[in-house]
Amino acid sequence: MSKIGVFICHCGENISATVDVERVAREVGGMEGVAHAIDYKYMCSDPGQTFIKEAVKKYNLDGVVVGACSPRMHEPTFRRACAEAGLNPYLCEMANLREHCSWVHEKSEETTEKAIDLVKMLVQKVKKNKPLDSIKVPVTKRALVIGGGIAGIQASLDIANTGHKVILVERDPSIGGHMSQLSETFPTLDCSQCILTPRMVEVAQHPNIKLYTYAELESLEGFIGNFTAKIRLKAKSVDYSTCTGCGACIQKCPVKKIPSEFNAGLGTRTAIYVPFPQAVPNKPVIDRVNCNYYKRGACKICEKTCQVGSIQWDREDEIVTEEVGAVVLATGFDVKGADFFPEYGYGKYKDVLTGLQFERMASASGPTFGEIRRPSDGVIPKKIVFIACAGSRDPAKGIPYCSKICCMYTAKHAMLYQHKVHDGESTVFYMDIRAGGKNYEEFVRRAIEEDTVNYVRGRVARVYEKDGKLIVKGVDTLLGGQQVEIEADMVVLATAGVANCGSEQLAQKLHVSYDPYHFFAEAHPKLKPVETNTAGIFLAGACQAPKDIPETVGMASGAAVKVAALFSNDELVREPLVAVVNRLAPPLYSTCVGCFMCETACPYNAIEHEDIRGRDGSLIKTIAKVNEGLCQGCGTCVAFCRSKSIDIQGYTHEQVYAEVMSLLND
Amino acid sequence: MEKIRERAATLLAEGVVTLVLGYEEGTKRPRPLFCRNSESARKLIFDSRCIHNLAVYLTKKELVGKDRFAVIAPIATLRSIMQLYVENQLSEDKLLVLTVDPSGELRELVTFEDIAGYVEQFELKRGEREQEILSKIDEMSREERWKFWMEEMSHCFKCYACRSACPLCYCSKCVVEVNRPQWINPWPAPLANMEWHINRAMHMVGRCTACGACGDACPVGIPIDLITRKMMEDMAPEFGYIPGQPAKKGNALSTWKLDDREQFIR
What we know:
Radius of gyration of chain A: 31 Å
CATH class of the largest domain in chain A: Alpha Beta
Strand order of the largest sheet of chain B: 2-1-3-4-5
CATH architecture of the largest domain in chain A: 3-Layer(bba) Sandwich
Radius of gyration of chain B: 20 Å
Strand content of chain B: 5-15%
Oligomer: heterodimer
Largest interface: A-B, 20 and 20 residues
Distance between the termini of chain B: 53 Å
């Protein structure tokens, strides 16, 4: 007969205030197979754990049930205590008497009875528990970082500096991301590129970092510590091993009117191009969509210009395979663009810009060399209106969240404008000013008080053009809803930050979850902000939610530490709570019939095919096999298996059945 | 009919296949025939009375052996074959399909792509019997339906003929035989019967091809084929399927597509 020990915790008063813990211990103590049952004020404390350890030895227990808080809190504590006393840790179970009982019910007879039921269920379950051994998986100590913005750069450098190899994949021809597009940064107004470019160069020169630009992840297979990444290197049409980056081809390229992505559409670029002067690598690619040769079959001027013969017309996309142990997702964000704001005239009036376009205009490397000029006629605007929350915090637009960075960059934009146009007049329409951050509030106050930016609390209803002016109609809610009308020369929209294009497809490729706005989901909103639900894949920066540079850098370093921690061991120890396909004696071998419906249901690609062969090598049958490195123990396959051939270790059919029946048979 | 006999005899004589599964005249209606030589192929018949779903034998290794075999398949059987294929139970190199198209031509289908292409041309319609009972059930309230089925199921004595006749019930150990733990009570009784039939229906979601073999096989005449059929009809539009069209990889309940309508969840 079983010898189960039951330990009921008061959790101070958290449980004992509403549950009669002594009665729980008494009643459960009378159950068949329960050898020992006590209650104690703090089971998780050192004396509490000692009670458990001593009881395991004294009564020779073969199972332990602790009725206390959530297993998420203290299951490791109690399992370790059992292990120290010589009991297999997986023979210890927890009944959640706090979150599932005392916290959610009033003090009553029924509350105590529910607590008794909860403990009894676990007693019946633990009788069916089997000792389990933790799973060990080898670790490939090389990281894949996807996205070469400041998040990806920081994560790569931090991982590389711990001595591990990093593969950094960037979709564009250069790393740098959005930060390279910014003019100055809040709250210090230091030049964005001046602080970023040294990091970019460091990435390029770091012996531990392998950089793939103009590349995208094709697929990711495998599991924590053991991923296989296929990376598509898009054809650059330029041989980087010989190209010197002299730029002659760029000057001679006849296709000059392509809207520049780097300048957010304000400037133009050529078909063979380097996105910006400080690009890393500073070597051009040919944009095949716009190149005359690829469009019409003739031109090749760049080839004639090139002194070293680096142009390769028939170069094709290449797929490289890399083995990695961890992945950091740092794919960043995008800003809402054209046609999202018909009421503000974006896309219709040339002088209505997005914040990112203004950023380029204010930048010394931008299309106007840092001068604020109207795109329509090149005139310096004397009156400028900034509209905060353009799209953000607007459930009607489908973006109920706050984009977080706009309040600050709008203050910065207004400030930069005032610094550049001394007789200019700037107005900011805002909903609230959210300036939470070190020196942020002071920065906004400076814009209002020192740089005399006119802040109007209220929303803008419409922007329309009249006699060459942009008429901004809004309301001032601090003056009792008074109508405000401003004749502006330029309007800047602080457009909402949204998930980067393709983030949903990428999430599906990697099997990480994402929120309704396609930002990647963290594993826990507070305690696991850089982890995803898929082990071994971490998050950094604005791909998780809009965030500013300091936060992004902090998160990237956080993700890097997680990767370094993973790489600090040669083997990875995992909980054995994974699915297993049963194996039986011949002639059945397994009740699995190999329909592989589980394979289509598994969200983690953990189901493999296993051939069962006879002694002569002939195939007897093919059955499913669970890769225990990949399996997360979610149980979807178990629910899907018609013949009940799959079980989750620690939550087997027998265990769950025993729990349910203990309730029904009472 | 003559062409089928000739072709079957040739296939056997030339050793292309070692077995032809078809129909012969029975006492009341056609019955399955396992031809292992060209001699016996002379007994083969094929007409509209041949409705026994021979796909049920295709997963039984002890019957079909290890070598290549042929099966004479009306459209319902072909649908089952496609479903068995997506469930990894059949392989192309072991199977040859013979059928007769509506114009009376003998067709030989070698690949699953061929079969899918052929099946696509046929629409799945309700027969008179199905239409009659299903429209009657459609008009019932929820309580009346429960009563109707409880009454029908009370006749069941768990002979499992439905399971034996179904080509998709090929598990080597059925869930009713799992006894650690015993999820489904094995004895015939109203509640225990319901447990079995609900389980059977759930195991058929997204898989049943409405061949009707289970209903035909029931010795007490419970129209159980209509449960899985109706489930298929109800489910198909929600997941962008058309009933009767050849099965595709994956299962409605296990796969997810960006354009799934999912309106029933909201």
